[in-house]
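So, can you check what follows?
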Amino acid sequence: MMPEKTTVIAAIARTGYVAKGVVYFLVGLLTMQTAIGMGGEAPGTTQALQEIIYRPFGSVLLIAIIIGLLAHAIWRIVQAIFDPENRDDTLFVKLFRVVDFSIGCLYISLSYAAWQILRGLQAQSSDESTEVWIGRILELPFGKWLVILIAVSVLVGGFYQFYSAVVASFDYSFDSKNMSNPEKILLRWLGRIGIFSWGIVYCMVAYLLYRAASTFDAEEAGGLAEALNALRDQPFGIWILGITAGGLIIYGLYLLVLSYYHKVYDGKPFD
């Protein structure tokens, strides 16, 4: 029988994956509407959360999403500090744990944005916050080169998403002992398609950051929504946007399925 702390951590992780899956499924769905001409601008996460409040029982759903996003933030911070999934103790994994902590902080911010939407306040989008921070960096000595360095880092992150999709490096978190082979294959392919789509988004964000640095204009930078809209403006952009939107929908489904098949932890802090 699992220790109580392990059960709590597993529940927090799974709750977070459900909320994250719902958000990105909705982002993908709204982006697909844009790609096929049924909507206006492609949305980011904040815009997707705003859509929820207008649905039946929207307030109840948004409260559940806020709880789930906070759960995911807690889970990523726990990953960063305790590494309950017992990943290798390599320099790369240590770097990844720093990324986990940063992502946890970002989801705290996203849950706060959702809380603002619930209260009827204007929440700052990721595009707006990106522009503000890039503007501040550009004002620093060598600010242009710092932004270019950030762009290169994001581009490397995009290439890692492609690599992860190809080799399925994410499947360490699967509860393989309690999954059939077809279930593992299905979940792995959902993850591959969804994560590859994130690679496209990362590369476009890197391009926007580079454009902001080269023009010394923070408004050229952007987050998820700006990256998706920029995709639409490229050659064959509607097709690329539609493929990316489909991938984000699949990524949302992957997270929802992963919430059920996620490994139950036996990490050292929870023995």
